[in-house]
Amino acid sequence: MSSSGAPAVRPASREIARAAVQAELSLVAYELVVEKGYGNVTLDDMAAAGGVSRSTFLRYFHTKDQAILVALKTYVERMADALRARCREEDDWTALRNAIESFVVPIYARNPAGAQAISRLALFTGALSGAHLDRADWRTPLTRALAERHGGAEPIPIGLAVKVAAALDCMGLAVSYWVSADGEVDLVDLLREGFAALSGQDAGVDG
């Protein structure tokens, strides 16, 4: 108890609250970059979009790249949550594809041109290299989520880790193909075609 009689706030609670605020600010910043273009957005713009002052924003992020990195990590965690929520009757490949689609498609569908631009920066130039999210950072939460669908056995079977790694490579290739084609091909079709190759099914299968 504090001297005022109110219960003291545990550091863990403050850290959780800070992480939640940081995640939401990062998502707003990322959406702004997709909408306006990386080079057209400043830290001041990101702060304004998040409804906070520049000084408050700088408590959470020191650079634009850092804000984008946190946004990507947040999206990956949400993708993992989507994987956990998938119907248990779905096979692993279908569950992974649907979870990835729930993350990728809404972002790219809202602003295809902006999504292509930021993806092109990340894929084909040196820009955003500081904000690049290592593929291992994607694999860990998704592998854990997939393992939970199988009862959460420890250690996690290597086969599940291999499936997640292959699914993420499939996602990366689909986005790369989509960007290279200037959006003239459908991203969902590319994802489904890729996953069909992984699972040995026809590309036209529905999820």
- The domain count comes to 1
| Low-pLDDT stretches | 203-207
Tally the beta strands: 0
Shape: flat
By DSSP (H or I, 4+ residues per run), the number of helices equals 9
Average the pLDDT over all residues and give the rounded result: 85
Structural class: mainly alpha
- N-to-C SSE string, H for helix and E for strand: HHHHHHHHH
Name the CATH superfamily assignment.
Answer: Tetracycline Repressor, domain 2
Helix content: over 70%
CA-CA gap between termini: 53 Å
Oligomer status:
single chain
Notes on the protein architecture:
- This protein is mainly α and 207 residues long.
- The protein has one domain: Tetracycline Repressor, domain 2, CATH 1.10.357.10.
- It contains nine helices and no strands.
- Helix 1 packs across helix 2 and helix 5 packs across helix 6.
- It is flat and about 50 Å long.
- 29% of the residues are buried.
- The C terminus is likely disordered.
Give a summary of the structure in a few sentences:
By secondary structure, this protein is mostly helical. It has helices spanning 11-36, 43-50, 54-60, 64-85, 92-110, 112-124, 135-149, 158-180, 187-199. It has a single domain, classed as Tetracycline Repressor, domain 2 (Orthogonal Bundle).
Key phrases:
about 210 residues; mainly alpha; flat; disordered C terminus
List strands and helices in order, with pairings.
Blueprint (H helix, E strand, L loop, with lengths): L10 H26 L6 H8 L3 H7 L3 H22 L6 H19 L1 H13 L10 H15 L8 H23 L6 H13 L8
